Structures are given as C-alpha cells and as structure tokens.
Please model this.
Amino acid sequence: MFLLKILFYIALPIASLIYFYFHKKFSYFEKRGIPHQKPKFPMGNLQGLGSKFTFFDIIHDIYKKFKDKDVIVGLYSVVTPIYLITDIELAKNILIRDFNFFINRRGYVNEEDEPLTAHLFNLMDDKWKFLRNKLSPVFTSGKMKSMYYTISDKGQNYLAIVDKAMRQNESINIKEITNRFTVDIISSVAFGMNANTMNDEHPELLRFFKEIFNAEGFSFAKMFFMMAFPKIAQKLKMKIFSKEMSDFFMNVVSNNIENRERTNDNRHDFLNMLIQLKNKGSIDGEFSTEHRKITLNEALAQSFVFYFGNLKMTLKILMICSCKIS
Model:
C-alpha cells in the first residue's frame, strides 16, 4: 500500500505536467482565432499515421473539410502547429512573391553527428540560400538532358529482362523490376555507381530503399519523434539512418569523388556537377557571382537526397506508365 502511494504521488505531478503541456500546445490556434481541426492526445491531428493513413491522406481530408470555408486552416503535427493554405492565390503569394519570408522547412538536421541530414530540403536561412543558389543550375533542362545517355543505357537492360521473360512465357514482378531499374538509374546519376540491381548485384541498395520508405514499428516511432521534437533529438544525438546505411553511402560517394578527381573523369551526371561545385565553386558553363565552394559533406548530403528524393516518385510514375502501356 505504501508503495502504491509513492507511485501515485510520483505519477500525479508527471501526468499533470504532461496534461498542461499538451493543453498549452493544443491551444495555439484557438488563442489566435484561427479555424483548425480539433487535436487529440498525443498525436494532434496525425492519429493513425503510418498504420492507417499517410501524411498526405490526413492533409487531404482536412483540406476537403475546410477548403470552401477558410483560406487558412490550422492543424497539429503532434504538438507542432502547422498552417494549411486552401486558397490558390494565397499559396502563389507564399511560394512566389513572398517566398523570401517562407524559405524554411520542418526537418531534422544534425550536421555534426549525421552529415547526410544536412541536405537542401532540411537546411534553413543562409545555409539554405547558399546551397539553393549553388544547385539551381543543376536542374536546368540542358543539364538534365545531358544525363539521358545514362538513363538510356539502364533502359536497355530493363527492356532486355522484360523481353527475356516474355519470350520464355514467364511471369515477372513488374513492381520489383521497375524498383530495381529506378535504383540503378539514380545510383548511377547521383553516386556514379554501377549498381546493376536488375541483375541481382548490390542487394544492400534495395534493403536501404525499404529501410527508408517502409519504416515501421520502432523505426517509424523514432523517426516521427525526431521530426516532432528535433531539438530534443539533437541533444540525445539520435540518428535517422542506420550506421550501416550512412557509412555505405558516404564511403561510396567519397570514393567515387576521389576516383574521378584522380582520373579526371568528367561524366555528364549529378555527381560530376557536385564535384565542380566542391572544387571550383561553380558549374562549367554557368555564370556565378558566388565562387565559394561547397564542402565534401555538403556534396555527400546533396547526392544522398537526390537519390532518395527521386526514387519513390519515379517508381510510381513508371508503374503507372507500365500499367497504361499493358
């Protein structure tokens, strides 16, 4: 009985602190008179995220509910208040005219302990502006077209595998082979790596793909905690990616950069442009008033996000195209 009383006196103030903390956080929009979706403890408006719904499912449902009534809607990502814009003209102002006031994103950055997180999508303020200006020329139509031959080469391998299966009247898992095709292309362009996962080489790349996009259980909870409480996660030195994954990508890209610099190999791909920014501060054929160079870790992080930022969407587009063609 005495032990129960001790536990009660310990638990009561802790529970009270948690209650008042969440109550204060969940009153942000109400205090400001902003229409909002009523939050629930402890996930705010993200109940069912990962198990039943994606983040975009939740956002879309809230958007449909408020789009004809309000131009700005509030919602909570756990305890973090987020503004959802339902008016297209206001969205244009934010993304174009007033963009300089809205450059920062929500993301977890731990540049010292996990350099791969310091990519363009996560950085803020002056660091973001610096890298944004450096990387803008990379995505011009001319630069993207120069990567066509790499894509074409991998495409021939893809067609050969599909053609072989058809001639032998074998079934083929189109999602799996398209996934491997996508991994091979982006690995080559982003890392300068001949992955060849379509022929069962470098299976670790497919494993890392699943680690990022199919996170569940403890991995999902950890990633979500880091996004919701980035400052606490930084103090705890938490990491998004496994040590195996981080070491693999950093070693592969670092070695490829070193090899290209040693052999003066100038391929037309994303990695080559990062090498130019690292060594010269500008990309060949592009005018720049800012000649400050990017660091090796900055190059590694941008290469990494180019890889994972393109995988899922490219795979989905190719899957839709395959279904339409069939």
Summary: The CA atoms of residues 71 and 88 lie 9 Å apart. Strands lie at 72-77, 80-85.
